[in-house]
Amino acid sequence: MCDSSTTVCGDHTTANQLRSVSSYEQSYCVDSCEESCLPDVTYVTCSGGVSTSASNKESQPLLKRMDTVDASIVNNVFPDDPEFTAIVKDAENAIDNCVYPQRISQGSSGSYFVKNSAEIPKTIAVFKPKDEEPYGRLNPKWTKWMHKLCCPCCFGRSCLVPNQGYLSEAGASLVDRKLQLNIVPKTRIVKLVSKTFNYSAIDRAKSRTKQNVSDRFPRVGRHFHRIGLPPKAGSFQLFVEGYEDAYVWLRRFEDDPLPDNIQKEFQQQFERLVVLDYIIRNTDRNNDNWLVKYVKEATNGEVSPVNPWGSPKKQPSIKIAAIDNGLAFPFKHPDEWRAYPYYWAWLPYAKIPLSKEIRELVLPTLSDMNFVQELCDELYDLFKTDKGFDRHMFEKQMSVMRGQILNLTQALKEGKTPLQLVQMPSVVVERSRTEPKGRIRVMTDAFTQSFQQKTPFFTWC
Asked: Domain PI3K/PI4K catalytic: where (predicted)?
């Protein structure tokens, strides 16, 4: 007996009704313009199941259409973070009330501002679907398609696993939380459905057809427990308010230098950005994808929001937010066309030795191999949720990360500057399974260290 939650089985009468759906789709779906926002359904027969032969193609650039659609129930619940769960639920309620995510015009991929269900909707998150990434099969932007077509020899970043940017976004947030850096807006993997997302014509036609069949033939429609567009998995990053692009503030600081106490606070925030980017080996950290929020001190004539009587003064503060972390966690160091440097390395803040504060914050944990292994294990639990997960490739990614951590701990101990840190030789720390000699043979983990020999053709870009 087939499970009614995943398959549709019936007698010859039901089969005839379902066969009529196909002909009905051709005659009716053209006139229909209404789309349901509910999830989709996978229909399979009793004799066969859902094919997974195409699942290993998930990590390839410009993905072709998969043979099957994930019919698992969307359950965006995070028991360890009820506050984040409530925010995602609020976003789902907003979509149900036709407050749809809005596509962001900037960038080379499909990303969306997600709003809440308040009377006056407010942006609460940024959602980046997996299949709308720069080289995803449903990317609504044409720039990367032209790149693929016109420059196949320079296609993408050869050091990154294609179409895993959404995992990289969530992975950067995980590293940020583990090290208590607090500069990455909280990011997790969720599944959302909205008609403003970029879907294929087939998915939209199926959605309209099933809705029309359900309305006209209720007995047949009862078999479709999922009517509508399929859910999209992607990174859901909380929106931060009051922040501006770093290059805007960096120009202002040149004309109007920061006070000494705020300058020290900004330097500490900058060092946290350095630690994050270096560990995850971010290949796309420009001055327009990290943000700065500077709250100046209120003058005597201003009214402080903390105290309406204007006393005491509002304390000045400055914060950094590291966004756009989708091009990180490479499986090798760049060694072909481009080096993908850290652009903050040319700032004057990168010429100041790493402070005692950042050393006390991260050095004890990064020097502990048990902590590093725990970090790798948590990243494994995150990355393996992807259908195209390759454990061998993931281990290469962790080998690069271990090498970055090794260099970072050495730089912290020696009091080097961020500029000196990025000039250190690229290291890879690989795991090797060794079998010690003796009467009792036990498999143990060992690590081998190696340096990168090949350098990119262009080392400055």
From this structure: 98-431
Average pLDDT of the segment spanning 350-368 = 97
Residue 209 is predicted with a pLDDT of: 83
Contacts of 422 (CB under 8 A, 6+ apart): 278, 341, 342, 345
Coil, helix or strand at residue 10: coil
153: Cα separation from own chain's centroid: 26
Kindly state the tokens that stand for 182: 């607090």
State how beta strands 317-322 and 102-103 pair.
unpaired
Name the band, by pLDDT with cuts 50, 70 and 90, for residue 76.
very high
User: Which pLDDT tens digit goes with each residue over 406-445?
Assistant: 999 999 999 999 999 999 999 999 987 655 555 544 445 6
Please identify which residue in the block is written with the tokens 């094919």: 51
DSSP structural state of residue 425: P
Cα separation, 93 vs 364, whole angstroms? 43
The residues pairing with 235 across neighbouring beta strands, listed in sequence order, are 128, 189
Residue 225 DSSP symbol: S
Q: Are 400 and 332 in contact (CB under 8 A)?
A: yes
The DSSP secondary-structure symbol of 105 reads S
| Calpha distance 269→261 (Å, rounded) | 13
DSSP annotation of 289 reads S
Report yes or no: 160 and 283 within 8 Å, Cβ to Cβ: yes
CB atoms within 10 A of CB 342: 23
Q: Please list the alpha-helical segments (H only) found in 295-444.
A: 356-366, 369-383, 391-414, 418-422
Instruction: Verify cis geometry, omega within 30 degrees of 0, for the bond prior to 312.
Output: yes
* Closest-CA residue to 41 (of 235, 216, 210, 233): 210
